[in-house]
Design a protein that fits this description.
The complex is a heterodimer of chains A (about 80) and B (about 250). Chain A is built from 4 helices and no strands. Chain A has one domain: Orthogonal Bundle (Non-ribosomal Peptide Synthetase Peptidyl Carrier Protein, Chain A), CATH 1.10.1200.10. Chain A has helices at about 5-15, 35-50, 55-60, 65-79. The longest helix of chain A has 15 residues, at about 35-50. Chain B has a single domain, classed as Rossmann fold (3-Layer(aba) Sandwich), CATH 3.40.50.720. Chain B has 9 helices and 7 strands; from the N terminus they run βαβαβαβαβααβαααβ. Chain B has helices at about 15-30, 40-55, 70-85, 105-135, 145-150, 155-175, 195, 200-210, 220-230, and strands spanning about 10, 30-35, 60, 85-90, 140-145, 180-190, 240-245. In chain B, helix 1 crosses helix 9 and helix 3 runs parallel beside helix 4 (about 105-135). The two termini of chain B are about 25 Å apart. In chain B, about 45% of the residues are buried. The chains are: A mainly alpha (about 80), B alpha/beta (about 250). The interface between A and B is small, with 4 and 6 residues. Chain B: Belongs to the short-chain dehydrogenases/reductases (SDR) family. Chain B: Catalyzes the NADPH-dependent reduction of beta-ketoacyl-ACP substrates to beta-hydroxyacyl-ACP products, the first reductive step in the elongation cycle of fatty acid biosynthesis. Chain B: GO terms for molecular function: 3-oxoacyl-[acyl-carrier-protein] reductase (NADPH) activity; NAD binding.
């Protein structure tokens, strides 16, 4: 697993207080990990801070799973 | 009841009549109070005066010019640094007026009042909420005005800002509710302060005539409403506006 994926996973575990084993790539923040809309906004803000990237509102709306977040950040970092 | 022991509270406009009384009341309930305002010397006088009754520990001064967006953005962090603990209570009390009839109102009169009385409170709420939501605890009390609900000739700018504050508070209350953070408003009526001292005597007499309780308010009439909303006991009150106006407007 990439360094970014590791860090994303860690932030999700920390923020949502879920068991690490549940944070699979396909896990949906809202449907599988019990997040509400405010949690998803806070998660996006935590990603922005941790990775020094900016995630605009329209992109943030599409980040619904762990994999979405990892892919988006990896793409930003590669650019 | 209504104890605030050890909780960090930031009060803006703490050099003004209502603000200093709010600071005094929160301090008397045990809070660690950070007083903000534009005039450092006046703030220090207020601290000395509150300290003479209750001791100067738990009192901090953090001057800021809220017409400066960057200063408003930075105030919550610097208050927390001064107090050495996260913010539990934010009281947006700072405000100014530039009264004149609309047809004579300059753009600058409009934007300055909207900047200081509405944009700055939003900036402070935004900064405070980030931490409060994470900590699952917090109290925001915004000080609006009766004219935000009734309107007042000569105060289109001030009334718009204060009405805006009430709408903003209700929205933030809905956003923050799931985290146990409450956002409420206190709307004072005509209170005897430097802001109302400048009104002509005839106008003041007329105003008092429209107040069922027959007198202008004092800052000490307002502060207890803030203490209540800041307390744990007010944990099921959010998005509310408490009108403290002697009955002048029963809304």
């Amino acid at each position: 697993m990439s360094e970014i994926a590791d860090k994303v996973k860690k932030i999700v575990v920390e923020h949502l207080g879920v068991d690490e084993s549940k944070v699979t790539p396909d896990a949906s923040f809202i449907d599988d990990l019990g997040a509400d809309s405010l949690d998803t906004v806070e998660l996006v803000m935590a990603f922005e801070e941790a990775f020094s990237v900016e995630i605009p509102e329209d992109a943030a709306e599409k980040i619904t799973t762990v994999k979405d977040a990892i892919d988006y950040i990896e793409k930003q970092k590669a650019a | 009841m209504f104890r605030l022991d050890g909780k960090v509270a930031l009060v803006t406009g703490a050099s003004g009549g209502i603000g200093r009384e709010i600071a005094r009341a929160l301090h008397a309930q045990g809070a660690v109070v950070v007083l903000s305002g534009t005039r450092q010397a006046v703030l220090e006088d207020v601290v000395a005066s509150i300290g003479a009754e209750g001791g100067v520990d738990r009192l901090h001064v953090c001057p800021a010019d809220l017409s400066d967006a960057a200063a408003a953005d930075a105030l919550v962090a610097s208050a927390e640094e001064k107090a050495g603990a996260p913010l539990a209570i934010l009281v947006n009390n700072a405000g100014l007026t530039r009264d004149t009839l609309a047809i004579r109102m300059k753009d600058e009169d409009w934007s300055r009042v909207l900047d200081v009385d509405l944009a700055a409170p939003f900036r402070l709420c935004r900064a405070a909420l980030k931490g409060m939501l994470r900590r699952r605890a917090g109290r925001i009390v915004n000080i609006a005005s009766v004219v935000g609900v009734t309107g007042n000739a000569g105060q289109a700018n001030y009334a718009a800002a204060k009405a805006g504050m009430i709408g903003m508070g209700k929205s933030l209350a809905q956003e923050a509710g799931s985290r146990g953070v409450t956002v409420n408003t206190v709307a004072p009526g005509f209170v005897q302060t430097a802001m109302t001292d400048v009104l002509p005597e005839a106008q003041k007499e007329k105003l008092v005539g429209s107040i069922p309780l027959g007198r202008m308010g004092q800052a000490t009439d307002i502060a207890p409403a803030v203490v209540y909303l800041a307390s744990d006991e007010a944990g099921w009150v959010t998005g509310a506006t408490i009108h403290v106006n002697g009955g002048m407007a029963m809304v």
